[in-house]
Amino acid sequence: MKKIQSTCNICSIGCNLDFYVEDNKITKVSPTKNYPVNKGLACIKGLNLDKEQIKGEVTKKPLLRDESGNRNEIEWDEAFELFAKKMSDIQSKYGTESVAFISTGQITTEEIALLGHVARNFMKIPGDGNTRQCMATSVVAHKQSFGFDAPPYTLKDAELSDTIIFIGSNPAIAHPVFWARVRKNKDAKIIVIDPRKSETAKYADEWIDIKPKGDLTLLYTLANVLIENNWIDKEYIKQYSEGFEEFKNHVSKFTPENSFEKIGISKERILNLAKTIHDGKRVSFWWTMGVNQSYEGVRTAQAIINLAVMTGNIGRPGTGANSLTGQSNAMGSRAFSNTTGLFGGGDFDDILRRKAVSKALEVNESLLATKATIPYNVIVEKAIAGEIKGLWVIGTNPRHSWTNNSEFKKAAENLEFLVVQDIYADTHTSKLSYLFLPSVPIIKKEGTLINLERRVSKVNPVIPKEEDELTDYEIIFNIGKALGMGKLLDNWKTPKDTFELLKKCSKGMPCDITGITYELLEGEDRTGSGGIQWPFRESEALEEDERRLYENGEYYTPSKKVKFLFGDISKNPVAQYDEFPYILNSGRGSVGQWHTSIRTREIPDKLKTWPEKAYVYMNPKLASKLKINENENVIIESINNSRAKFDVKINDMVKEDQLYAPIHYIETNSLTPSVYDPFSKEPSFKTVAIKILKK
Ligand SMILES: Nc1nc2c(c(=O)[nH]1)N[C@H]1C(S)=C(S)[C@@H](COP(=O)(O)OP(=O)(O)OC[C@H]3O[C@@H](n4cnc5c(=O)[nH]c(N)nc54)[C@H](O)[C@@H]3O)O[C@H]1N2
Ligand SMILES: Nc1nc2c(c(=O)[nH]1)N[C@H]1C(S)=C(S)[C@@H](COP(=O)(O)OP(=O)(O)OC[C@H]3O[C@@H](n4cnc5c(=O)[nH]c(N)nc54)[C@H](O)[C@@H]3O)O[C@H]1N2
Ligand code: SF4
Ligand SMILES: [Mo]
Known about the structure:
Layout: E1 2-7, E2 16-22, E3 25-31, E4 63-65, E5 71-73, H1 76-94, E6 99-103, H2 109-122, E7 127-129, H3 136-146, H4 156-160, E8 163-167, H5 171-174, H6 176-184, E9 189-193, H7 199-203, E10 206-208, H8 215-228, H9 234-240, E11 241-242, H10 244-251, H11 256-263, H12 267-279, E12 283-287, H13 289-292, H14 297-310, E13 320-323, H15 330-336, H16 351-361, H17 376-384, E14 390-394, H18 398-401, H19 406-414, E15 417-422, E16 435-438, E17 447-450, E18 455-459, H20 472-482, H21 495-506, H22 518-522, H23 526-529, E19 532-533, E20 562-563, E21 582-587, E22 615-618, H24 620-625, E23 633-638, E24 643-650, E25 658-662, E26 688-693
Parallel strand pairs: 6-7, 6-14, 8-9, 8-12, 9-10, 11-20, 12-13, 14-15, 15-16, 21-25, 22-24
Antiparallel strand pairs: 1-2, 2-3, 4-5, 4-16, 17-18, 18-19, 21-26, 22-25, 23-24, 23-26
């Protein structure tokens, strides 16, 4: 029996798992004991990675739709030729940018980068990722405030904090292994800011039951109270930040008294919370989708950064303004996808970076993409308008997960050529495809993933591929060949080749990985096989398993100072009013459920604890007012004018005027709006006005 260590590619924690293999079959999966991230822990999803693909439609050869609408297997070579011909024909007929892709944070960094090379450099097409629905807000907030998309923390900071504040974050469900580490820190005070009494809020010392989207007002009010009481770190502000005076002036109008209506938190509780932050010696702030998925997400994330900076809670053990990522490789896609920045970071019009990247890739500068992509929402809008005619979807299921999801259906139906590349042929999106390209799952792949604390870790093939099976890497490579890339693929033959190219691209950047090699990551010694956080430069020695950024107070802005950024409070474009009197909130349902429920199928039935059908949580008082019984099926209509049916689960985790719908059912996103943050273009999924109709 062989033991092979590899990285879980489901959530952003990036646990390592030991796979025991006999006769090319996985006999057992257990969490790697000495891996610094999970230290012998794992969740139900990772532990069932061996059950991949038991349920659901799987093919080894591509599927092509015929005139009567049936899908038939074709040979791989035929599929690559067809892809190249169709996409090139569309581009010559309607223009280069009439073709686009939508990718994912759930494949390896090498695959993401090769896609960036083939599609963005060579095809010159726009392409975005599902990370737009998720991390775009943090990315923009980091870039503007810190000067680079570089989250400050290492996971150990949660163990070292004396005060831990979660804002719009439910790690008990969404980041279970991290949550287990948080809970080990018995001395810390845990505060949860969430309109809903989430599983995390239930456990916390204090639940700040804020009104939905009251966060920006609350954070500005807290900043004002801290300033007025002189509970700030003047020395840190002076030495390491800029824009504080303007910020101070801006927040001076946010008093506990006049904020009450917007946030529903009393003056006493606000003062208490400010005092708790002041009293804490090591305060860490952690935010996730309750912040990012908002029409004012970027400014809210920056308000969290401002609080950490002004109280000196950044760059020290146990502190930080820390954005938790969701998918296994969102961080890889952020640094190396060639969609919103060059490989390794830097704007497309940055002359020096263009030179460095073209040199690293050994290509002419004119090959590099010349501008950032149009965002996801614009790709969908352009497909609906008929300006985009060809779309390549990889490792994501937008027919289910995109906001106002019938818009994606409209887009798909309007396309001349929809290609879907997934490990399952029967996702809602795969089923819409004209050409379906099957890829193998992570257990048959090689490459790297980057977790939420910037840790690069190795994915190793656990069992071999069978005949006709291809990895995403091989599929994308062969598409490049069929498109006629020729010599432009010479340096990209294997994932390892690509990793070496990315290292060169990252040289001198904040995400420098020049010191990392596959060999080091695979090494038996503790350091390398524990994954390595970026930055890790050539000839650097790895002394610590856990490293945080900004310890010397230097940031990546031109002045090296962190910026105080802020803005006015906006009105929720889809706020509740008489006709739509309730709010629909949405997010994760349970530890075992994953997004669009495709991979949730991999968990054995006996372990499934969640309902089959779409449901909402409703407060007992509202249920009694509307005379709705447990498990009654109701129709919910949203401000979109869309309707969907949900079973009602009566539960006091939600307030009387709010419902909560897990995202794992396609119904939920039929109700969410086409509303976005103005800077990040991330959908404002979480707060939409609805009404409830009894059947
Ligand atoms: N089991 C499981 N784990 C997952 C995932 C999964 O699908 N299943 N998905 C992964 C991914 S990609 C991501 S991005 C993460 C997401 O991780 P989280 O963001 O932690 O999860 P969510 O449930 O989306 O939302 C978190 C909380 O935001 C709250 N919220 C809603 N509106 C507001 C508001 O206006 N203000 C505040 N303060 N809070 C609000 C919700 O009530 C919810 O409790 O999870 C990752 N982990
Ligand atoms: N209302 C509402 N909507 C939301 C959210 C919310 O909080 N509220 N959260 C949003 C967030 S944060 C996210 S990240 C998105 C997630 O939304 P999606 O990305 O659409 O969700 P998944 O179900 O993870 O889809 C991933 C797909 O990739 C496939 N896949 C897995 N491994 C591989 C592989 O190795 N190769 C290939 N080619 N395919 C693979 C899976 O089979 C699956 O079909 O949903 C967003 N939608
Ligand atoms: S916590 Fe995340 S990375 Fe760890 S086993 Fe579960 S899904 Fe995989
Ligand atoms: Mo996400």
